[in-house]
Amino acid sequence: MGFFGKLMGEGTPDYPELDASSPAASKLNSVKDKLTELAGQVKDPMEVVPADGAAYVFIGKPPKKFGIAWIENNEINNFKTLLAKRGASPITLEKLSNRLREAYVNDAPEEKFSITLGDKKVVVVPSDSLAADVKTIIDHVAK
After folding, report:
1. Which residues pair with 41 in a beta bridge?
2. Which tens digit of pLDDT belongs to each residue from 109-140?
3. DSSP 105-126
4. Domain that residue 76 falls in
5. Residue 32: which of 17, 19, 48, 43 has the closest Cα?
6. What is the reported pLDDT for 79?
7. Is 6 a domain residue?
């Protein structure tokens, strides 16, 4: 992003640092290595939703244009891996995107935080309800 983009307010907003003693930080610690690996591979902004033993990552600019990755069982997954593992159709993935968009709009809290993974600043969205909804949506398609 260039100087004018920053001047016009584009890019990742500045959120306060996530408190290392918070429940969200504790949840992220269990997947930190894979999350750092993912952050090193992704150029777009990331919003991480911590969960117990997992993390759901909105990549891009949710709720408008985004992709998603998730870390479960020490594996990074995304739409491509879902296609490969389950043979999900593009129509199914479009429906999945729409349901994830709805969940984000309905459940994402106003209060967000930031962490740094490697050289990348990442937004943390501490919402148990969003994490539960995203897990349900992905699990429904993955089975």
Report:
1. none
2. 989 999 999 999 999 999 999 999 999 999 88
3. HHH--S--EEEEETTEEEEE--
4. 16-142
5. 48
6. 83
7. no
